[in-house]
UniProtKB/TrEMBL annotation:
InterPro entries: Gfo/Idh/MocA-like_OxRdtase_C (IPR004104), Gfo/Idh/MocA-like_OxRdtase_N (IPR000683), NAD(P)-bd_dom_sf (IPR036291). Residues 5-125 form the Gfo/Idh/MocA-like oxidoreductase N-terminal domain. Belongs to the Gfo/Idh/MocA family. Residues 138-333 form the Gfo/Idh/MocA-like oxidoreductase C-terminal domain. The keyword Oxidoreductase applies. GO terms for molecular function: nucleotide binding; oxidoreductase activity. This is Putative inositol 2-dehydrogenase. Keywords: Oxidoreductase. Transmembrane segments: none annotated.
Length: 341
């Protein structure tokens, strides 16, 4: 086929980056249309990117357009499942930002519809496309560190804004969901069997009574014996901190670097360096490469690299975390479903 004609649903912070990538950075794709329910947003962004890009306020109107081959969904997380289903029923291939859904019931319905309509679906777990994480995956698959035994994944955001509008359980469903997918990715063919989560409001304790949690540590046990931890905090004052570690029977891998460049400063105050403060700086190439992978899969009628089933597996861990926080007990996973007492 020729270039993939892409419709962008959501022109906010992440949507704008993806729209620019399709327009200027990704080969084999054209940004055909933009839809955003906020009046004027789509029109302004379309005008910025190109005179021929169509703009819609109602996303459903964009999905009706027959010339659109694929849709990028960058709307709020709680709308992802419904938007994927709407796009799939119109025969559009879908790239959706994480999470694919916020409940396992939604996730199962998404997978059912996508399979029924025979459309491509890829979920935006960008760390799989970051060079360090991909290199670690290849080393692990090649057996170069033996069997994974201890694993760690970290996400620390540089600054917490106003928590008022942040939904409950965001730390598991939208932040640590990346870490859960990373741990699954770096422990291939293993399944999580037990999850224990501890979380609190340490950055903004005044929001704890509203159900907002900004700090969490999760322990995950896998059926191959590996024990993993995933941790998150919404305010690392020193920068945007994303790292991973896999300790195996024959060695160890570490992944991630907070440095802005490899320049190190030596002066009267000691030794220091500048740090990255924004996700689109830290993961710029990964964000572009995941879209390139999606476009290539659609053009060549190949499977996508991060499937709905992958997204559901990470969501199952998030769901177990929520249950663990409620019960203050470990939660077992059986066939991808948290088991409640």
């Amino acid at each position: 086929m020729g270039n993939v004609q892409v419709g962008l649903l959501g022109a906010g912070r992440m949507g704008a980056f993806h729209g620019e990538s399709i327009a200027f950075r990704v080969k084999g794709a054209d940004l055909y249309a933009i839809a955003d329910p906020v009046p004027g947003n789509a029109e302004a962004f379309a005008k910025k990117l190109g005179s021929n890009i169509k703009a819609f306020t109602n996303p459903l109107d964009m999905l009706e357009h027959p010339d659109i081959d694929a849709v990028i969904i960058a709307s709020p997380a709680r709308t992802h499942a419904a938007n994927i289903i709407a796009a799939a029923k119109k025969g559009k291939a879908v790239f959706c930002e994480k999470p694919m859904a916020v409940t396992l019931e939604e996730a199962d319905e998404v997978i059912r519809v996508v399979n029924e309509e025979s459309v491509s679906l890829q979920i935006g777990f960008n760390r799989r496309f970051a060079k360090g994480f991909r290199s670690a995956y290849e080393e692990i698959r090649a057996g170069k560190i033996g069997t994974p035994q201890l694993m760690r994944s970290i996400t620390r955001d540089p600054a917490l804004g106003d928590p008022t509008s942040i939904p409950q359980w965001t730390i598991f469903l939208e932040t640590l969901i990346h870490d859960f997918d990373t741990l699954l990715y770096l422990n291939p063919n293993a399944k999580p069997i037990e999850v224990y989560a501890a979380a609190d409001a340490l950055v903004r304790p005044d929001f704890k009574d509203k159900g907002f949690l900004d700090t969490a540590v999760v322990t995950i046990k896998f059926d191959n014996g590996a024990i993993a931890t995933a941790e998150a905090n919404f305010q690392a004052v020193y920068g945007y901190d994303v790292r991973g570690e896999v300790f195996g029977s024959e060695g160890m891998l570490t992944i991630g670097d907070i440095r802005h460049t490899n320049m190190t400063r030596y002066n009267k105050d000691g030794v220091s360096y500048n740090t990255i403060r924004y996700d689109q700086d830290l993961l710029f190439d990964a964000y572009v490469d995941e879209l390139q992978s999606f476009v290539d899969a659609v053009r060549n009628h190949k499977p996508t690299s991060v499937t709905g089933e992958d997204a559901r597996a990470a969501l199952a861990i998030a769901a177990a975390c929520i249950e663990s926080c409620k019960t203050k007990q470990p939660v077992t996973l059986k066939d991808g479903v948290p088991q409640t007492v």
